[in-house]
Design brief:
- With 238 residues, the chain is α/β, with parallel strands linked by helices.
- The protein has a single domain, classed as NAD(P)-binding Rossmann-like Domain (Rossmann fold), CATH 3.40.50.
- Helix content is 40%, strand content 15%.
- It has an 8-stranded mixed β-sheet, with helices on both faces.
- The protein is globular and about 55 Å long.
């Protein structure tokens, strides 16, 4: 088995995910670009390779058990193990017609958001755990949001998206507790308010700034924090 570390970034074809892939590639990781859309995935891999990153594409729909299983098989065949998993794929969900106003909440929107933002993270994490266990210093980073903080209660009222991040934070702590006696370190990250298609490109932070906390948590030392929620400034309150 070679010494090159491999990282899988889900939703890596654009925005913060692409910036995380680029940042990890710049420090020597081989990057598996997980994305549903074949054309966008290939374009992202080509852009990364043009920037000097060793990257390969992985077809990955986090809402599909079969797709996730196939992605794990692809990574095993290509790299033999996985050193870093960044669960970045996420959706905000529809907001039209009061779909995320709690008083008129569309439960189908809630289900759709949870399927990607929470269940998708569980699907991918559990499929990749056997490969992560083969690594010497495996790391899992779940991309969350301070909108999921029950303490801060920040951002617009979005009663599907915000609770999905609260649940993701809770699931993150459960993984950290379960894996406490292993070398797998699991944390949640808040990238801040980043200009991507997610925010209509109307936000103060760049994707690269948003990616920085994920890269830091992905490269923590073996005695680094576990089961926490962090942004650039440190600990984010639950």
């Amino acid at each position: 088995m070679n010494d090159t570390k491999t990282a899988l970034v889900t939703g890596a074809n654009k925005g913060i995910g692409f910036a995380i892939a680029e940042g990890l590639g710049a420090i020597g990781f081989t990057v598996a670009v997980g994305a549903r859309d074949e054309i966008r995935r290939k374009e992202a891999v080509e852009r990364l390779r043009a920037a000097g990153v060793d990257a390969f594409g992985v077809a990955l729909d986090v809402t599909s058990d079969d797709s996730v299983a196939a992605a794990a098989a692809t990574i095993e065949q290509t790299a033999g193990r996985l050193d870093v998993l960044v669960n970045n794929a996420g959706i905000s969900g529809r907001t039209d017609g009061g779909a995320q106003d709690p008083t008129t909440l569309d439960l189908d929107v809630v289900r759709t958001v949870l399927d990607t933002n929470v269940f998708g993270v569980v699907r991918v994490t559990n499929a990749m755990l056997p490969l992560l266990r083969r690594a010497t210093s495996p790391r899992i980073v779940n991309m969350s949001s301070n909108m999921g903080s029950l303490t801060l209660q920040t951002g617009p009222i979005m009663a599907a998206y915000a609770p999905s991040k609260s649940l993701l934070n809770s699931v993150t702590t459960q993984y950290a507790r379960r894996l406490a006696d292993t070398n797998i370190i699991v944390n949640a990250a808040c990238p801040g308010y980043v200009a991507t298609d997610f925010t209509g490109f109307n936000a103060p932070r760049t994707p690269e700034q948003g990616a920085a906390i994920a890269i830091r948590l992905a490269t923590l030392p073996d005695d680094g924090p576990r089961g926490g929620f962090f942004d650039d400034d440190g600990v984010v309150p639950w």
